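Note to self: keep these together.
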Amino acid sequence: MAKPRFAYLLLKEHPYGREMLRQILSGGYVPEIIIEEDSAVGDEEREKFLKRIEGNPIAPSIAEQAAENGIPLVTVPIHRSPEVMPHLEGMELDLIVFGGTRIIRGEILDYPKDGVINAHPGFLPDCRGSASPAWSVYHDIKIGSTCHFCDNGIDTGEMLLRREVPVRRGMTYEDLCYQTLALAGVLMKEALMAYEDGRWDEMRRPQGESEHPTFRNASDEVLEVVYQKLRDQTYAHYVD
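Structure:
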């Protein structure tokens, strides 16, 4: 199969999306268009994530990567169908790739021929929702990232790829957030490579049920427990 034609959606200059774009471009996968959401929610999420990965490298800006690769870059106030669909009209898209967005439902999910995919910085189905490494440490869930299809649920679509982050003693919460971010980008590149090779049908599988709820952003109280567990090295899934 040929390389997929796809649109790339993310919150404006989110570090998660910047790293994922860098990864997929390194594999020769160039979006037809990038659609950024410029909103107060996007600003809050970007700043929150920058704090979570403090001390780790950040990929070049979306604006810089788009300019270097000749990718059209448009901005919308929110990733909802009335704002996004006019920019996709006339495009024969195989896929839409999410590079760090809020929850998106509706017409956007039905538009591309072969689906909408996301790389979630959590080990699905056990860790759905927000602030995945924090909840993973808190509940002793394996830490990793998962590339999956998007449906109208929250992180519930069929999986393509899932991989653990090897957690070593002495790693900080910021390290874990960065490692899951970087791995998510790698998995998205590998998923696009598998699409090009025609292997998705043999890879996709349902998630199954989770014994945990869909998580919201971790509170300061939860984060205190997380930091303490990492300091004391009492997290359950160290590789060393």
